[in-house]
């Protein structure tokens, strides 16, 4: 159902996604709400492991960095 107006929805780990089954996003700042969003989608441990691998391989973070596809 379409919705127009303010919301207080805050997506964090434990949130059950109903429609989305993949996500393309960049590597976000640690401890940001966007890291919480991708952690809710893929699981905190998987996201932290991906971030560690990306750092080790020289990936760039934040707005001008590399992107990731989460399936």
Characterize the structure shown.
The protein is of the alpha+beta class. About 30% of the residues lie in helices and about 10% in strands. The chain has a domain at about 25-70. The protein has a two-stranded antiparallel ribbon. The longest helix is centred in the C-terminal third of the chain and has 13 residues, at about 45-55. It starts with about 20 loop residues before the first strand and ends with a strand.
Précis, in short:
The protein has 71 residues and is an alpha+beta fold. Helix content is 32%, strand content 11%. It has two helices and two strands.
Question: Can you list the strand order of the major beta sheet?
Answer: 1-2
Using the alpha-carbon principal axes, give the shape.
elongated
- Counting DSSP H or I runs of 4 or more residues, the number of helices is 2
Distance between the termini: 25 Å
Largest sheet: 2 strands, antiparallel
Oligomer: single chain
Order of helices and strands: EHHE
**Low-confidence stretches at least 5 residues in length (pLDDT < 50)?**
none
What Rg do the Cα atoms give?
Answer: 13 Å
Structural class: alpha+beta
Q: Tell me what portion of residues adopts beta-strand conformation.
A: 5-15%
Assign a percent range to the helix content.
25-40%
